[in-house]
């Protein structure tokens, strides 16, 4: 049951014109291909954990509570490979020694995290879960690559989930989750894990090409996969919830690319005025994308209690997920 929401964006804005000074690109080229005109990026004193703490604090305020039984942080840009950032986030929020762990599912992380949090509540492990999608992913994007550098932005979005009845506003409907590891290399950072190591035998001899520390993306096949998988997953979630497309007040799809969002909406036959968009201001913020979008809608007053929302996302893995949500009456703070 959704009981609170919050978001946070780093203060530094990078426009398309800013990027074009260092890349062979232009504002028009980026906008027509992605729908993005600017994005937020972390400075040296900000990181995934910092963003998560700020968003988490706002979600707790929105819920009107000061504690939680568990903290989950979905991120693909962790503070360190070890340990997880969630325990530190819990401590900095004053939540004490609660259960806390990270979850990695790239841009699908928010859907996977919602399902995980719901599972903790359903099994009685927790009554209240603070779930945060937080990303400083621009640190993993090659600033010289015009195919990826304009797409991503940094930020965090958080929700509070509590025990409740399935017919109450705030209830999350059935989930549809999926993956296809055979296509994992379509979107990946090759280095940094145990497969492609930073040094040979611990002697400090570098063995990894510099570009392998950055994201690699096969744009065309990813576009096709994203549209197909999100459309199929969203239809499945609607069927499980016994909703028709006409019942949907808002389609809140992962903000990867405006053309992808619109193509999925067209496949589902969701009218354009019901398609939520904020990618133009924030870019692709991965696991933070959907909660930031919901927070924007709620803060503007466009998302009202009782409205039906269809959530869907697609990302590296490959992974995807969808769910339905009846929006409760939440107070949401603007991120700007």
From TrEMBL:
It is found in: Cytoplasm. This is Beta-ketoacyl-[acyl-carrier-protein] synthase III. Homodimer. It is an enzyme of class 2 (transferase). It comes from Streptomyces zingiberis. Pathway: Lipid metabolism; fatty acid biosynthesis. Residues 255-259 are annotated as: ACP-binding. The keyword Transcription regulation does not apply.
